[in-house]
Amino acid sequence: MPTVLALETSCDESAAAIVRDGQVLASAVASQIEEHARWGGVVPEIASRRHLEALPLLIARVLHDAGVPMAALDGVAATVTPGLVGALLVGSVTGRTLARLHDKPFLGIHHLEGHLCSAALGEPLPPGPYLVLLVSGGHTELIRVDGPGRYQRLGQSRDDAAGECFDKVARLLELGYPGGPAIEQVAVGGDAGRFQLPKGRVSLPEGGYHPYDFSFSGLKTAMLRQVRALQASGAPLPLADLAASFEQVVADVLVERSCRCARDQQLHTLVLVGGVAANRRLRGLLERQAAATGLTWRAAPLAYCTDNAAMIALAAEQRLRAGQSSSLGLGVAARMPLEQADRLYETPPCF
Ligand code: KG4
Ligand code: ZN
Fold first, then answer.
1. Which superfamily, per CATH, for 3-117+305-345?
2. Does the beta carbon of 179 sit less than 6 angstroms from any atom of ligand 1?
3. How confident is the model over 131-163, as pLDDT tens digits?
4. How many angstroms separate the alpha carbon of residue 307 from the centre of ligand 1?
5. How many angstroms does the Cα of residue 243 sit away from the middle of ligand 2?
6. 162 and 135 Cβ atoms separated by less than 8 Å
7. pTM of the entire structure?
8. What is the distance in A from the centroid of ligand 2 to the CA of 73?
9. E-state strands within the chain
10. Domain 128-299 is found in CATH 3.30.420.40
11. pLDDT for 244-287, tens place per residue?
């Protein structure tokens, strides 16, 4: 029954959590959103400083809430890639220091592996293979999971991530940051069919389109043109209809391509994770489409869609069970493909 303390500081949420045997004993998140909202996006330097201030309190709080002393931990984990390098360093150095001081194994975790594990924080996932649609502020990917640590990316966005597109369109509509929840709120009661918006497709050199890749830059431009045309007419912007139409086309594209990919790859379970997975229109559409096409679907619980440390702890527990741990000299990286996550460990997996 491994008990793991994990830290998450890859972007603008400082988080700590303790997980034992797949169960969250304590989880705390200190959001910096209000501070970054003033600038319309994340300011890396501010993010690092706030992580530094927040972590000691968060760690003390989860140890207290879980009623677990440091001595009872089986490992200490921190997100080490991908993310903002300065922000990652704060969590990684803190995690490695705690591991060294208390003589525990350290586990550097790939942030996307954490998101993949978030779906299992509700109820255990089927053993695999299954298809994961990972939609966050930095990534839009379709990943085949054959088991712990066995990942294959089958589709991705060629430009903006879906969450990034939500954030940029929200800025265009002057709805504030982060854009996803703001757009979702404004879209309630809006006419999702009022504006015809493009479902960006990615051309193949040999002709035709990539079946599972995404592109959101054309949609962003179409929204900009639509807004400029409406503004030129002098009428107030129909915000609810614009937000609902935008949300609908993003949900349509994500669900259509995911279901097609699952069907082509003969994967019978589709799993939705990442910050954008909190979107109710997307969850609702996925539920209906999955039912219509005979797929089983699962999504991360709402509380664990956006960044948190419980998902990082779960990923660490999985690695620990496989006999893996990281070097105390492990660095951080702004980018690393998920398929290379095994490189974060000194010991080979013994699944
Ligand atoms: O997973 P996450 O917390 O951080 C990254 O790893 O990127 O995702 C944050 C993203 C932001 O772009 C935010 O606008 C989006 O998730 N998001 C949403 C919703 N809640 C958060 N997008 C659509 N609908 C939501 N309810
Ligand atoms: Zn994330």
1. ATPase, nucleotide binding domain (3.30.420.40)
2. yes
3. 999 999 999 999 999 988 899 999 999 999 999
4. 8
5. 23
6. yes
7. 0.95
8. 25
9. 3-8, 13-20, 23-31, 75-81, 106-110, 130-135, 140-147, 150-156, 269-273, 296-299
10. yes
11. 999 999 999 999 999 999 999 999 999 999 999 999 999 999 99
